[in-house]
């Protein structure tokens, strides 16, 4: 029997909270090596330690973070589209199916992020201009939304890798309102997760961002498909 009214509303909310917590916990477990070195990155005291940690992160991220995040987006896609699935088996299934594509995509996107970080480090040391800082923040904002769109595309459109990159860029640049919407909401989620509600990190942070990103992408994608 389907619950309605206030009780039905609370039930639906509790279902989504449980879903977010469960898939995020899986994502967190699969990403544990990455999060371990990210945490160590915050504790480095010398340039040598910083360089070594960044190199390790650059090597392992495409092989760990990207497949795990792709699987989370694939699970979130099913839920957003109203399909009921077995979480653990589905997550592992999508992890294996999209592993190669997500790793290669992770290598390419990881290079973009690494170049941006290196440029930021050298430019900030050379110049303390607020204009430079604002420019790099804007680039990071665009690249972050591009990365989220990439995950949504490879789990939904089932396209080739080059087309996934092209379409992710098209949506990021061609739909500025969606880009600002997803970027700001994701940024706020990250901000509040690290300032006062740190419990969100292992239980909700990735899943909520994936939900917001894919829901926004699906809305845009559906409009484009309708027009065509």
TrEMBL record:
One protein family per Pfam: DUF624
Source organism (scientific name): Aquibacillus albus
Transmembrane segments: 21-44, 50-76, 103-124, 130-155, 167-192, 198-221
This protein's UniProt keywords: Membrane, Transmembrane, Transmembrane helix
Name the record gives this protein: Membrane protein YesL
């Amino acid at each position: 029997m389907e619950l309605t009214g206030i009780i039905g509303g609370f039930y639906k909310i509790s279902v989504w909270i449980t879903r977010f917590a469960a898939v995020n916990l899986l994502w967190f477990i699969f990403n544990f090596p990455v999060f371990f070195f990210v945490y160590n990155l915050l504790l480095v005291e010398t340039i040598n330690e910083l360089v070594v940690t960044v190199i390790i992160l650059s090597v392992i991220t495409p092989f760990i973070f990207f497949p795990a995040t792709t699987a989370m987006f694939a699970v979130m896609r099913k839920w957003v589209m109203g399909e009921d699935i077995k979480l653990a088996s589905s997550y592992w299934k999508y992890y294996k199916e999209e592993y190669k594509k997500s790793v290669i995509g992770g290598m390419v996107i990881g290079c973009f992020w690494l170049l941006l970080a290196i440029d930021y480090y050298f430019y900030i040391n050379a110049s303390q201009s607020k204009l430079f800082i604002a420019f790099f923040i804007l680039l990071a904002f665009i690249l972050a939304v591009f990365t989220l769109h990439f995950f949504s595309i490879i789990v939904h459109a089932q396209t080739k890798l080059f087309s996934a990159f092209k379409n992710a860029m098209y949506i990021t640049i061609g739909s500025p309102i969606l880009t600002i919407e997803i970027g700001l909401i994701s940024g706020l989620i990250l901000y509040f997760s690290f300032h006062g509600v740190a419990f969100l990190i292992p239980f909700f942070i990735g899943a909520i961002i994936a939900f917001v990103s894919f829901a926004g992408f699906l809305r845009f994608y559906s409009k484009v498909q309708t027009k065509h």
